[in-house]
Design goal:
The complex is a heterodimer of chains A (about 350) and B (about 300). Chain A is of the alpha/beta class. Chain A has 2 domains: about 130 residues, Response regulator (Rossmann fold), CATH 3.40.50; about 150 residues, 3-Layer(aba) Sandwich (Rossmann fold), CATH 3.40.50.2300. Chain A is built from 11 helices and 12 strands. A 6-stranded parallel sheet of chain A has the order 2-1-3-4-5-11, with helices on both faces. Chain B has a single domain, classed as Orthogonal Bundle (ABC transporter involved in vitamin B12 uptake, BtuC), CATH 1.10.3470. Chain B has 12 helices and 4 strands; from the N terminus they run H-H-H-H-E-E-E-H-H-H-H-E-H-H-H-H. The longest helix of chain B is centred in the first third of the chain and has 28 residues. The chains are: A alpha/beta (about 350), B mainly alpha (about 300). At the A-B interface, helix 1, strand 7, helix 8 and helix 9 of A face helix 1, helix 4 and helix 10 of B.
Chain lengths: ~350, ~300
């Protein structure tokens, strides 16, 4: 009985370990589809450990992939690694599937890519905000700092208390890049504004996110920007319960989560990058190296402000537009933490 | 609000989740059984609470169902461990992984979303408004807290009384060091253990419900974020005594609250975020030293 149970548990555990990467068809089926259509591009997308459903960049990347499926007839597959410890194994699996293009989301893929890529010179790889270079790797480099600069400028003009806050997921360069941009933008719009930046230490702890938001509100901050994935959901909950405070969302248009209480969202068009890459692979115009997606390329922008247009004064919106143009034509140079 | 009050309020808001779970860990520790599954029980509790609250629109029913459900899970743990003699660590790990997977799966199945589920139809736990405390310094931290904060504190007292002042408590305390003696006294150890594990599950369920319905009204993947393990540490810290465990959880919540606060004044976050861990290690060292000194003096303790 005990042995049987032990065996059962082992089976259960091993099944659950593969649960994350078990979507799609069997190998035999894939073989047939390949023969049927030669000009048809096959793409596999690997999300970051946050996985789909983050209402943030993983979802955005997936949206781009879906668009590629519909408009370009790409055959798609998604793998969601459970943690960054699974990255290497997931990437090896993905690369060995005989797909044309492997796209990874998240900026912690460098090690896994460097190990796997040399073994698959015929497979094309794509990534976001990576420093890695290779002949078969294209990297979409989003100017998070520029988008955050705009968000900061808006926050500084909308605050009544003169204090604004940022909640970051972790104190790592990829997040610092947003925070520094936000601070610079705020100071540009109003040099007297106080910016308080905090780091929760987790991307999936909304309870703590809310506590951080409440602390910031208590400290007088009335516009708070988050760069913290699901932890940021706590911020939205906090602004809903407090009068006169606003949040700013990140990565995707999050304005709908708390209508009227989220001033804007700093949108990062990961979907556009994914779609562009798939298109280039299909049309055989794929080029390795860095592709910049900044304010000038519409890679980053503020949201439409569907629910908050009416509370933001017209001159503020005009001012933001001026700043946007100045970033575009290079008059304003935003500090990029990655370049330091 | 002044700084002290704010820190106290944050501490009180962070406290219940780990306090409930650590009480659950404490009672199983009393029967010499390490229940590392606290984390998984909590996560499932958090999910069930949100789901039931969404469908019924009642936080009361949600909490009730969560407690029953997590109690059943605790009972399952007992059956696997006692009847099938499976290793408790293996069961714990299985429960934790199962909880992660199953909540993700059902979130997609029931609500068609992934990652996070929130809806205005989810009813949160009520708050206890004590307006007369508003003007009193420090104590004003208590003026608007979830009823679960008080429930958690009340349960610490209940656990203490049950453990040290009742027959059942005596039996539970005796089962750990000497189950044979309890058996000889004509008490069914097997049944007792089943009950303890069931109650442990229920307590974790309350902790989970507080996480998803107390502060927020939402569920996100892995929203427990290691709180089950912190609870485990707290009950170890408290030497499996309710009052000691309470201080353990209070210490962890307090250092978390200080961590948040300190960042507002520009302390470097990397340094500050170490604080809870440094505090943990330091207190454990001090505890060990105190214990050793007592042993040397020949006082047999606990």
């Amino acid at each position: 009985m005990k042995k049987l149970l032990a065996l059962l548990l082992v089976v259960l555990l091993s099944v659950s370990m593969f649960a994350g990467c078990s979507q799609g068809e069997s190998a035999a089926e894939m073989e047939t589809t390949k023969q049927e259509n030669d000009n048809h591009v096959k793409v596999v997308l690997l999300t970051s450990a946050g996985g789909l459903g983050d209402r943030s960049f993983n979802d955005a990347g997936f949206a781009g992939l879906k668009r590629a499926e519909e408009e370009l007839g790409a055959e798609i597959k998604v793998i969601e690694p459970q943690s960054s410890a699974d990255y290497l194994q997931s990437l090896k699996t993905a690369a060995s599937l005989d797909y044309d293009f492997v796209m990874v989301l998240g900026n912690d893929w460098a090690d896994a890519l460097e190990t796997v890529m040399p073994n698959y010179p015929d497979v094309k790889f794509g990534g976001v905000n990576l420093k890695t270079e290779a002949d078969n790797l294209a990297v979409a480099k989003f100017s998070d700092h520029e988008g955050s600069y705009l968000a900061g400028a808006l926050a500084a003009q909308m605050t009544e208390s003169g204090t604004i806050g940022v909640i970051g997921g972790m104190d790592i360069p990829a997040i610092k890049r947003f925070v520094v941009g936000f601070e610079e933008g705020a100071k540009h719009a109003d040099s007297d504004v106080t910016v308080i930046s905090t780091y929760v230490g987790s991307f999936s702890d909304p309870n703590k996110g809310k506590e951080f938001a409440l602390q910031l509100i208590n400290e007088g901050a009335d516009v708070i920007y988050h760069v913290a994935g699901k932890t940021g959901e706590g911020l939205f909950s906090a602004v809903k319960e407090n009068e006169g405070v606003y949040a700013i969302g990140v990565d995707q248009d999050q304005d709908y989560i708390a209508e009227g209480k989220i001033l804007t969202s700093m949108i990062k068009r990961v979907d556009v990058a994914v779609y562009d890459f798939v298109k280039q692979v299909k049309e055989e115009t794929f080029t390795a190296g860095v592709h910049v997606y900044g304010v000038a390329e519409d890679g980053v922008s503020l949201s439409e402000m569907t629910y908050t247009k009416d509370i933001i004064p017209a001159e503020v919106l005009e001012n933001i537009e001026t700043i946007r143009q100045e970033i575009e034509n290079g008059t304003i140079q935003v500090t990029d933490v990655f370049e330091q | 609000m002044d700084m002290m009050t704010m820190v106290l309020e944050t501490t009180l808001r962070l406290l219940p989740a780990i306090l409930f779970a650590s009480l659950g860990g404490l009672i199983t520790q009393r029967i010499k059984l390490v229940n590392l599954g606290l984390e998984g029980f909590m996560l499932i509790g958090a999910f069930v609470a949100v789901a039931v609250s969404y469908y019924t629109g009642s936080a009361m029913i949600a909490v009730l169902v969560t407690v029953i459900f997590c109690g059943l899970m605790g009972f399952t743990f007992a059956v696997f461990h006692l009847k099938f003699k499976a290793d408790n660590i293996v069961i714990s790990v299985a429960i934790n992984m199962f909880a992660l997977g199953i909540t993700k799966y059902f979130m997609n199945l029931l609500f068609g979303v992934r990652g996070a589920f929130s809806s205005p139809e989810i009813v949160g736990l009520p708050k206890l408004r004590l307006a007369f405390l508003d003007e009193i310094p420090i104590l004003s931290a208590f003026s608007n807290l979830s009823v679960f904060v008080y429930l958690a504190l009340f349960l610490v007292v209940v656990t203490h009384v049950v453990l040290y002042r009742t027959k059942i408590g005596l039996r539970i305390r005796a089962t750990g060091p000497n189950p044979m003696a309890v058996e000889t006294a004509g008490v069914g150890v097997y049944r007792l253990k089943c009950w303890v594990l069931t109650v442990s599950g229920m307590l974790c369920g309350l902790g989970g419900a507080y996480l998803s319905l107390g502060q927020l009204t939402m569920f996100t993947d892995n929203m427990t974020n290691g709180r089950g393990f912190v609870a485990m540490a707290a009950s170890n810290f408290g030497n499996a005594a309710p009052i000691g465990t309470f201080w353990g959880t209070a210490l962890f919540s307090f250092s978390d609250a200080v961590t948040m606060r300190a960042q507002l004044y520009g302390f470097p976050p990397q340094l500050i975020q170490m604080l809870p861990y440094v505090v943990t290690v330091l207190t454990l060292v001090v505890m060990a030293m105190v214990k050793e000194r007592k042993m040397k003096r020949g006082i047999n303790h606990g």
